[in-house]
Design goal:
Largest sheet: 22 strands, antiparallel, barrel
Distance between the termini: 47 Å
Helix content: under 10%
Low-confidence stretches: 8-39, 472-478, 594-598
Oligomer: single chain
Radius of gyration: 26 Å
Number of domains: 1
Structural class: mainly beta
CATH superfamily: TonB-dependent receptor, beta-barrel domain
Number of strands: 43
Strand content: over 45%
Length: 775
């Protein structure tokens, strides 16, 4: 249930029950199973390989809080998109953002970034085959030819660098076997879902050169519709899916020691822009609140596009049995024109058409050394990225109201505030992390990374007294005037006239260390403790109204104490206690009257310091040859230590105090094939949508998912049926709150002169049937 809070905001209730919960749930798991298992024995725990420290290791020997989901487990559970992985990783939020189907909202341990505007940096790093995905647009990845997904919790500042203060999510695709393969998969499901996936590989030169390919075409009708649209002839589906993705990979095994991989991928998502659900009736229209949370109204076109494409290349050379050198490079581009109707009415109350563009290049050289008592991972990294955009806050009704009141000239047709600009970054880093075995049982690890970054930014911000859209033809019949002048407000004044005419420029450097101690208490139990530091890049205000300076990086100091244990051949218990301090938090606040949420004058500051303690428990129990259980539990206790934000911080965004997942898997061998049945219950405690507002709060909810998969005895035919959100829970994943709150608890108009309180929701109950064939 969505809770709208009419009372003045109150401090979040922070419980202190971690110790009690630890004792009660010491049977709780990591949902990390099939990730390249090596020789699993029936009825026993599997050996799981991961690359959390940029080298192949087993899950149980890595002193990092990590959840790993392998290809087989993803398939058995019917997980087809990255956001579904959040259920199986404690204290993790991976959700589809407001407005589009492809923009990611990611938080780990309450650390992340909610606003996807260019210039803001993420707090959770997303990687595809060790290539950094810099922007949240398009980061809701559909899983295609994946080997495993790894979720690394806690700052990863040493090995992965900037913008991983919460952690990192790694998408690892499959290396080719060298044998000809072709797999065709089709899925039919609720809301006329119709998906086709085609993956395969072919040896161009036997044992030397392989070509891999993948293609997916994913379509689904909307969960709801736009009940009224001011644009005639527009597609009115809401929350629909219209996406295709393709990958090509060329692998060359030049010698036994020299390996090359070249890759290309492209994704195009033409799903409609998402319309939100009005949590309050509009003051300006007589349209009723929709019966379904997936229905909406709009005055904008429903069209939306997210285009992503990129190239990557990797060379790996094994110098000898102990030393390896690797080079990874990439070039990525994205383009996203979108239409977001903030007020979700058929009037131009608060419409925000926008364009996002991003382009970046990365280069990384790694050197890995492994000896009997020493492991070393080191490297050099370079990033060069350009992130630009434009959005128009179209407040047409407000402009006409002001004209009627005599504030604007008589006959003013509308009002628009346009913001555009670029926030470009160039950075390099050097890093090294070594683990040394002091004795057979005791190891110490030391790591450090030095990052030097330079940013340039320009912001253009101004107003016009009519409705303005960012490109010609944005709305049928509308042509943008060529003489529109939007002044530059942020940048350098090179000609001395007092007006910025060149990008502003600042540089920051940061040293991020890591220190760890690991003790192998027994062959099957590892104890570890660590201190690590991470940072989120300094930046400039992409909504600047004055020529303000950039803000310093955010810094997170984190302490962890953990255990990884296979107590028996059937019981695995991994637990981590963590505590962190989050300093110099970047927050865009209101200038002037702090009680007026409609104010447009905003400034970016390092405005707050917060802290948190928590626990993560992951347990797997293999009860028999056919039956296993998993539990994943996360708890976080949040504290505000310094609060200069305006309005003030009151809690964590999109982060519940408690998350819990309980799952079971049963396998059955029969003369008709191999069957796998699994079910899980996923629980999220109540949480705020925004860290500075309790106007919208999601009540605690639980979700049930059930799956059954089958594979023929020959291994060529396979299929599955997946029932998700079986009880049809309604739960918020995003929203907008542009309202004022009166002393009596009632709501008044906010920006746009309407009660704009909007919610976006996660998927309803769905059923999917998948059938595939391997040639």
């Amino acid at each position: 249930m969505t809770r709208i809070n009419p009372n003045p905001h109150h401090p979040r209730r922070l419980t202190h029950c971690a110790i009690a919960v630890t004792g009660a749930l010491l049977a709780a798991p990591v949902m990390a199973q099939q990730t390249a298992p090596v020789g699993p024995e029936k009825g026993k725990l599997e050996r799981i390989e991961v690359t959390a420290r940029k080298t192949v290791e087993t899950l149980q020997e890595v002193p990092v809080a990590i959840t790993s989901l392998g290809a087989a487990e993803l398939s058995e559970k019917g997980i087809s998109v990255l956001t579904e992985v959040q259920q199986f990783s404690p204290n993790t939020t991976l959700q589809t953002s407001r407005g589009t189907n492809s923009t990611l909202t990611a938080f780990i341990r309450g650390l992340g970034q909610q606003d996807p505007l260019w210039g803001y940096e993420p707090g959770v790093g997303i990687y595809v085959d060790d290539v950094y995905i810099a922007r949240p647009q398009g980061a809701v990845l559909d899983l295609l030819d994946v080997q495993r997904i790894e979720v690394l919790r806690g700052p990863q500042g040493t090995l992965y660098g900037k913008n991983t203060i919460g952690g990192a999510v790694k998408y690892v695709t499959r290396e080719m076997s060298g044998e000809p393969e072709l797999t065709v998969t089709g899925t039919l499901g609720s809301y006329s879902q119709r998906d086709v996936k085609l993956t395969g590989q072919y040896p161009l030169i036997e044992d030397k050169v392989y070509l891999g390919f993948g293609y997916a075409n994913l379509n689904r009708d909307g969960f709801g519709e736009f009940l009224v649209s001011a644009q005639p002839g527009q597609d009115r589906e809401n929350y629909n899916k219209d996406l295709w993705a393709a990958r090509l990979t060329l692998e060359i095994q030049a010698t036994d020691d020299l390996f090359f991989r070249l890759g290309w991928d492209k994704t195009q998502d033409d799903s409609n822009a998402k319309g939100g659900y009005r949590l309050l009736p509009s003051l300006r229209t007589d349209a009723p609140q929709p019966d379904s949370v997936f229905d909406s109204y709009t005055s904008l076109p429903t069209t939306n596009t997210v285009e992503l494409d990129g190239y990557s290349w990797m060379a790996r050379y094994d110098i000898n049995d102990s030393m390896q050198v690797k080079y990874i490079g990439s070039h990525r581009e994205s383009y996203s024109p979108t239409n977001i109707d903030f007020d979700n009415t058929q009037l131009d109350i608060f419409d925000v058409p926008a364009i996002y563009e991003d382009e970046n290049d990365t280069h990384e050289v790694q050197f890995n050394y492994t000896a009997e008592t020493l492991k070393l991972v080191s490297g050099l990294y370079f990033y060069d990225g350009e992130s630009c955009g434009v959005f128009d806050a179209v407040l047409g009704v407000l402009g006409r109201d002001f004209a009627a009141a005599g504030i604007f000239p008589e006959g003013t047709p509308g009002f628009t505030r346009e913001v555009s600009g670029c926030n470009n970054s160039e950075s390099w880093a050097a890093y090294a992390q070594a683990s040394y075995d002091v004795t057979d049982k005791l190891s110490v690890s030391l790591g450090a990374r030095y990052t030097d970054e330079e940013k340039q930014a320009a912001v253009f911000n101004g107003t016009v007294l009519y409705n303005l859209y960012p490109q010609s033809g944005w709305i049928d019949g509308f042509v943008r005037p060529d003489d529109v002048f939007i002044p530059q407000v942020l940048g350098n004044d090179t000609d001395g006239d007092g007006v910025p005419d060149a990008p502003a420029q600042e540089s920051w450097s940061r040293f991020t260390p890591r220190v760890g101690v690991e003790y192998q208490y027994s062959r099957d139990m590892l104890l570890f403790a660590s201190y690590s530091q991470g940072f989120k890049s300094g930046t400039f205000n992409p909504r600047a109204t004055v020529n303000e300076p950039g803000v310093s990086p955010e810094v997170v100091d984190s302490f962890e104490l953990g255990v990884k244990s296979d107590l028996t051949d059937q019981l695995r218990v991994n637990a981590t206690l963590f505590s962190y301090d989050h300093k110099d938090r970047q927050y865009i606040g209101i200038e002037g009257n702090s009680d007026d949420p409609t104010a447009l004058q905003q400034r970016l500051r390092n405005a707050a310091e917060t802290a948190a303690d928590g626990i993560e428990l992951e347990v797997t129990y293999v009860a028999s040859d056919n039956l296993s259980f998993d539990i994943a539990y996360g708890f976080i206790d949040f504290e505000i230590k310094e609060n200069n934000a305006v309005p003030p911080l009151i809690g964590l965004a999109s982060t519940p105090e408690n998350t819990l997942n309980v799952g079971t898997t049963y396998t059955l061998d029969s003369q008709y094939g191999y069957f796998t049945f699994n079910a899980n219950y996923y629980y999220r405690d109540d949480y705020l949508l925004f860290e500075t507002s309790d106007l919208i709060e999601q009540d605690a909810y639980g979700m049930v998912n059930v799956s059954a998969t089958w594979e023929s005895t020959q291994g060529n035919w396979f299929g599955g049926i997946h029932l998700k959100n079986l009880t049809d829970e309604e739960y918020l994943v995003g929203g907008y709150d542009f309202v004022t709150r009166n002393e009596d608890g009632s709501f008044g108009p906010g920006l746009g002169n309407d009660t704009t309180l909007i919610g976006y929701y996660g998927d309803p109950r769905t059923v999917h049937l998948t059938v595939g064939y391997r040639f």
